[in-house]
């Protein structure tokens, strides 16, 4: 049986098993098995080598990347062309784009790479169409634009979410607050700081034994589901990525129809053909990317507000800032004078480990 067939078989078994006290252990086991099989799919997708993967290995440029994911012909390439001025073939037939087409946009001083991907369809994560490669690229992005055609049924949104979820991508979520400490012996010890209303001990034990975690302390600090527990165990293969739902082609529907669409969370309605509402889309992109702009101030001079050093919020210490400017800077570093919201005193003298905030001003003092 192939991995995909095994997944199908387990899904079928889960569908016909009723959830109750007696079956909880069995269902927990099946969920964990499923998660392990899906992991096999991810590793075969990102491993490359097999199939037509040419063009999917795009060099990363810029401080962050945004991947465009959507069904064929929803207007992904038209959007890339409008936003970045890059040329990616756009046409009215499906699967126009067959490879990753990169473009770059400069927004608020930050260079952001945008990746136009081929259209995906249901079954993408098990290898249909160019699905595997699209998904492998999406996993590396800092933000995903899920592009939807407002004329197509919203079921497309769910299909895409399911495809991405299936390979360990978690959209607009934070990792579950569950701490697992492996031990040499002593069995599984479960503690919780909030009541667990969605998960019972049998399910926890089933999942733990499926992962051969026979001795461990697990502390639940959120009302977790069995999927959250599996995510916590599999944390290394999970990707928590923000997503924006781009509702394209609003030029082709009425105002009344448009109002209904605004109910979708994290959405921006646009028309890439007419260039409508692209400002809102970029503003939302900026917000979700959570970038940190740091202005340099040469000693005794005014800060340079035109060319910020842009950092990602997960890597924005003074050391990261120095490395962005020049590799040798850290070796010569004495102290940094920082003005802005990351410090109490203006300026405050800090070391390499200080974490910067958006729009701070920094002067590096050398030895
Ligand atoms: N009315 C309208 N049509 C649009 C809009 N954006 C794109 N289109 C049309 O939709 C068709 C498909 O556009 P593409 O940009 O090639 O779509 P894609 O998502 O890149 O398609 P694939 O590469 O096949 O996945 C083209 O005929 C575009 O002119 C829009 O905002 N409004
Ligand atoms: Mg395209």
From TrEMBL:
InterPro entries: Beta-grasp_dom_sf, DRG, G_OBG, GTP-bd, GTP-binding_2, GTP1-OBG_CS, P-loop_NTPase, Small_GTP-bd. GO terms for molecular function: GTP binding; GTPase activity. Residues 290-366 form the TGS domain. Residues 64-290 form the OBG-type G domain. GO terms for biological process: cytoplasmic translation; positive regulation of cellular response to amino acid starvation. GO terms for cellular component: peroxisome. Pfam families: MMR_HSR1, MMR_HSR1_Xtn, TGS. CDD domains: DRG, TGS_DRG1. Keywords: GTP-binding, Hydrolase, Nucleotide-binding. Transmembrane segments: none annotated. NCBIfam families: small_GTP. Involved in ribosomal function. This is p-loop containing nucleoside triphosphate hydrolase protein. It comes from Ascoidea rubescens DSM 1968. The lineage of its organism: Eukaryota, Fungi, Dikarya, Ascomycota, Saccharomycotina.
């Amino acid at each position: 049986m192939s991995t995909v067939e095994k997944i199908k078989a387990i899904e079928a078994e889960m569908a016909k098993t009723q959830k109750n006290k007696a079956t909880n252990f069995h269902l927990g086991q099946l969920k964990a098995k499923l998660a392990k099989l899906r992991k096999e799919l991810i590793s075969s997708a990102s491993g490359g080598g097999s199939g037509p993967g040419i063009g999917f290995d795009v060099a990363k440029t810029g401080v962050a990347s945004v991947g465009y994911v959507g069904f064929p012909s929803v207007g992904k390439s038209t959007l890339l062309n409008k936003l970045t001025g890059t040329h990616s073939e756009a046409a009215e037939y499906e699967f126009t784009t067959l490879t990753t087409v990169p473009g770059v946009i400069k927004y608020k001083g930050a260079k952001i790479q945008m990746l136009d991907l081929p259209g995906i369809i249901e079954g993408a994560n098990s290898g249909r169409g160019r699905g595997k490669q699209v998904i492998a690229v999406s996993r590396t992005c800092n933000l995903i634009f899920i592009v939807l055609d407002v004329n197509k049924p919203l079921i497309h949104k769910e299909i895409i979410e399911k495809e991405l979820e299936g390979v360990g991508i978690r959209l607009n979520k934070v990792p579950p607050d569950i701490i697992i400490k492996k031990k040499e012996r002593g069995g599984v010890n479960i503690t919780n700081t909030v009541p667990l209303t969605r998960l019972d001990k049998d399910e926890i034990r089933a999942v733990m034994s499926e992962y051969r975690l026979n001795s461990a302390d697990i502390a639940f600090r959120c009302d977790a589901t069995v999927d959250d527990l599996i995510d916590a165990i599999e944390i290394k293969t999970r990707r928590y990525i923000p997503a924006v739902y781009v509702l394209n082609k609003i030029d082709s529907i009425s105002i009344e129809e448009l109002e209904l669409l605004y109910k979708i969370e994290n959405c921006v309605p646009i028309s890439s053909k007419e260039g409508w509402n692209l400002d809102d889309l970029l503003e939302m992109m900026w917000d979700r990317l959570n970038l940190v702009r740091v202005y340099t101030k040469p000693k005794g001079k005014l800060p340079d507000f035109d060319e910020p050093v842009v950092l990602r919020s997960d890597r924005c210490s003074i050391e990261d800032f120095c490395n962005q400017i020049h590799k040798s800077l850290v070796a010569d570093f004495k102290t940094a004078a920082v003005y802005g919201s990351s410090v109490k005193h203006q300026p405050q003298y800090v070391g390499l480990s200080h974490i910067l905030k958006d729009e701070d001003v920094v002067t590096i003092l050398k030895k």
